[in-house]
Every structure is written in C-alpha cells, then in structure tokens.
Amino acid sequence: MDGADEDGWSAVAGVWAELWGDFADPARQRVISETGIGPGSRVLDVGCGSGEFLGMLDRLGATPAGIDPAPAMIALARARLPTADIRLGSAEGMPWPAATFDVVTAFNALQFAEDTLDALHEFVRVTAPNGLVAVSNWAEGARNDLNVIETSVALAAGEELRPDGELRQAGGLEELFGDAGLDVISAGLVEVCWEAPNDEVLVRGVLMGEDPDTIAATAATVIDAARPFRIEGGGYRLVNAFRYAIGRTGPQATTPARNSSPSS
User: Is residue 114 part of a domain?
Assistant: First the structure.
C-alpha cells in the first residue's frame, strides 16, 4: 500500500503492525547508533505508525514522542506506550514548541508529506540547536527484492510501477537536507529484510490494503514472482535496502516558529 491516505493506513494498521512493524529495525538501529540516542535523549518519531521505534527508544531510557496522521496507528502506538507523548497530526504542522527535541526521526514517512521541504523545515524547528534530524526510507527499486514482485503485479494488471522518487535515489536525502539548512554528518544504505513463513503471509503482506477480490485474483502472480526468494521450509526472504541521512541543526533556529495547537 502506498500514499499518505490516513484512512487507508488506519484500515491496515493491525496488519501493518503484525507483518511490517519491525521491518525497518536495522535502519532504526543504525540511526540510534549514529545519533548517540541513549538515556535522557528527547526523541520525536514523525510518522511513528504503530510505535515500534518508540518502544525501542523507551527501552534505551530515552524520552520518546510520536506523531502520525492515522488514528488507528496512533491507537496502537499509545497502547504500546501509554505514558509517551503520542499525538495525532501531520509532519507539516507539529504541535510542539520550537527546540523541544534532541533528535527528530522519520522512517518511511517523509516522502508522504505534501511538501517534503516544508515538512523537513518543521523537523528542524522542533529540534534543539545543534540537534540531529534523521530520515530513512526505501532505496531505489533496483536494490529491493520486493520490487521484483511489485513489478510482476503491476504488469499483470496492465499497469506500470511509479518511478522512484528523488528521496529513494543516491544523494536525494542529502540534497533535501542541504535545502533545509542541515549539515549532513552521515548518510548511507542499510539492508532491511522481510520474511514471510508461507504463501498466505506473503500474499497478505505484499497485497496489504487491497480488496478481497483483487487479492484472490493476484495471489498466484505474487507467489510465482516470489519463487526466486523461497527459503528452506517453504517461506520467503526478501532482501531490500533503505537509504538514510543524518543532519545537524545550526546553533540557532533557522526556521520561524509555526502557529499550531495541540491535537489529541
């Protein structure tokens, strides 16, 4: 499922948490390592989804906060961490004062903003002077086994995959960070694998968000395209890649505070 449709993401929140919630953990661990997040760090995760990264932060002794536009995702995140500051809202207008956080992160989320540069400016606004902003998202399709399956599904439907966005390509995140006034201190690729134990889970994961008729009509295409990725025991292992960039804010705020009110 693609896009920034909060109702669509709410509709699949439970399946997302079950099948994809931990998928980005290698990228999350890389960000934790390179930003030095630890006890007492004030960290905001933008597009926090069902709260997996917030749980990692809590276990490290950090002070986690999260925001997401999908109500059902927020409900899952709050159930995971009832005492954390988790709010419903968008990346472009966040309900925290300037310079609230030491680190602001986004995993597979920034690209869904209506204007990615505006959203990144908002990340900078709520980050303390000399703080860190970290963004990670899918790398270009050629680096992802999942792309092989999605291409087959699109061809079977007489469609074409959308071209890779700029943030998925080499240098895309770094260029955007520069436009936002961030000093890039680290960037790279992280291998992220997704495993499905059987055909049923494979199909549910790949076709998440599709209607039952579409799933029934497309399941065989998914299974056939995934044959190169079968592993012993009948499951599947798809090797993919995320890009990431980490930037440091300046000694003073570089963007004006925005007027916003807290949301529930």
Answer: yes
